[in-house]
Design brief:
elongated; alpha/beta; six-stranded mixed sheet; single chain; about 450 residues; 2 domains
């Protein structure tokens, strides 16, 4: 029976590279953390043999990942080499725990969750594990570079890509950094060619997502792989006739309300169902408004439109206005939504599917277009998808989430009530749909 090698050729090439600054972009599950922690262990053991001390800190994307790097990387290597060491979990600050091993002559390896504060105040070798997925990785970079300013200190940056524009993308692609960093790229094809036992076609079929496959396994910086809604998709759903409240003809409506955190917008989106499509009739945007003003706008929307279902963000600041909205308009019509990652993904998926089916029509407005494009899909170290957005132009994707809540309300299994208006009879929710007053927008069946 032939045993698997401890290190594959691509891992040995990475380990043998003694450059002061080096960066590796590797496919998922190719052993980049395993190999890089081995480098830190070997460096410390070499220093110990000479009666010296070396220090390494591994900055991970989360505390769980930091603990994993310690248990399945650092300790695994030290135990395999039968090295003597002490291990401890040390509190660095409030809610920040570092996992640490110490060797007899003072060498130390520490694993900790990365943030700008934990990156400061050190002078030692650094490993940035899954750096593209670190929150605020540019701020972390600014804080940590002085840590390795001494010429004898080393910096290792390892990650799978997470779209264009972040610091890891810059490290791996900038011509200005090509002479500073020794760069390594290992796709799933490279790893398998070097002997890694993986069934590529089986993995590709299971992923069932070309953009995600390109990012996670082919090491491609795919901008649209990180943007939940592409500009092309958004443009395909734009229509000049959307976003005009005066076009409302009394049809069943679905609303979404995203309440503001400090500095953000409170947004109310109203969608009218017409001939199987959802038309954005009104997008209410309130900046720095009181709860009373927000509730007054919700009251107006519920009065002026035939709202079958309204989904409201109940997370954090939303608790009080949701409770009051339910008291005023009924528990059935007003649905409080807690923004867990799973629920956000469900709502964002409902919005995307309606746009892909061209069943959602929105006005061609730049601020709305940019807000919809601002939501990014990232894949954390555990492989679970996450949706994030930077705060830009006074919005934290508030328009996106109001629309997603409205789309979720429309697709939540609550069938709109059937209604008919007698010819000539005016509707209490807008223009009549009788034979004498019907208006038709050509092309998509909008009233």
């Amino acid at each position: 029976m032939v045993s698997e090698p401890i290190l594959y050729p691509y891992q040995r090439r990475w380990l043998a590279d003694r450059s002061r600054f080096k960066a590796a972009m590797m496919s998922r599950q190719t052993g980049k953390t395993f190999t890089t922690t081995l480098e830190a262990v070997l460096d410390c053991l070499a220093a110990e043999a000479e009666g010296k001390a070396r220090r390494w800190t591994i900055l991970s994307v989360s505390q769980a990942r930091a603990q994993d790097a310690m248990e399945n990387g650092v300790k695994l290597h030290l135990n395999a080499m039968r090295a003597v060491f002490e291990a401890a979990a040390i509190p660095l600050a409030a809610d920040v725990l570092a996992y640490e091993v110490r060797l007899p002559h003072g060498s130390r390896i520490r694993c900790v969750a990365a943030n700008p504060s934990t990156a400061r105040g050190m002078t030692e070798n650094l490993i940035l594990d899954e750096f593209a997925h670190h929150k605020d990785n540019r701020a972390i970079w600014t804080a940590l570079l002085p840590v390795v300013s001494r010429q004898d200190l080393k910096l290792r940056v390892i990650s799978t890509p997470a779209g264009k524009g972040d610091k890891f993308h810059e490290i791996m692609t900038s011509p200005d950094l090509s002479k500073t960093f020794s760069r390594h790229i290992v796709t799933i094809y490279d790893a398998v060619a070097d002997g890694l036992p993986r069934n590529i076609e089986e993995l590709r079929a299971a992923m069932n997502d070309a953009e995600a496959w390109a990012q996670e396994f082919e090491c491609a910086f795919v901008d649209e792989a990180s943007s939940w809604l592409s500009y092309d998709l958004i443009a395909a759903c734009e229509d000049e006739r959307a976003g005009e409240p005066e076009r409302y003809a009394g049809g069943p409506c679905f609303a979404g309300v995203d309440f503001a955190a400090r500095g953000d917008l409170t947004v109310i989106a109203v969608l009218e169902e017409v001939a199987g499509a959802l038309w954005l009739r009104e997008l209410v945007e309130l900046s720095r408004s009181t709860f009373a003003a927000q509730l007054a706008e919700i009251d107006r929307v519920m009065k002026e439109y035939r709202v079958i279902r309204c989904a409201l963000d109940q997370t954090g600041l939303g608790e009080m206005p949701v409770e009051e909205a339910r008291r005023r308009h009924g528990n059935y019509r007003m649905e409080g939504v807690l923004f867990t990652q799973a629920r956000k993904l469900d709502l964002a998926t409902a919005l995307k599917e309606k746009m892909e089916d061209r069943a959602l029509l929105i006005p061609p407005r730049r601020e709305l277009r940019d807000d919809l494009h601002s939501v990014k899909r990232t894949v954390g170290a555990t492989g679970a998808p996450r949706l994030t957005a930077e705060r830009e132009a006074g919005s934290h994707a508030d328009r996106f989430w109001a629309l997603a809540l409205a789309a979720g309300a429309a697709g939540g299994g609550h069938a709109p009530m059937e209604y008919e208006l007698a010819p000539g009879k005016s509707s209490p929710w807008g223009r009549a749909r009788g034979n004498n007053s019907r208006e038709t927008d050509q092309g998509r069946g909008a009233w």
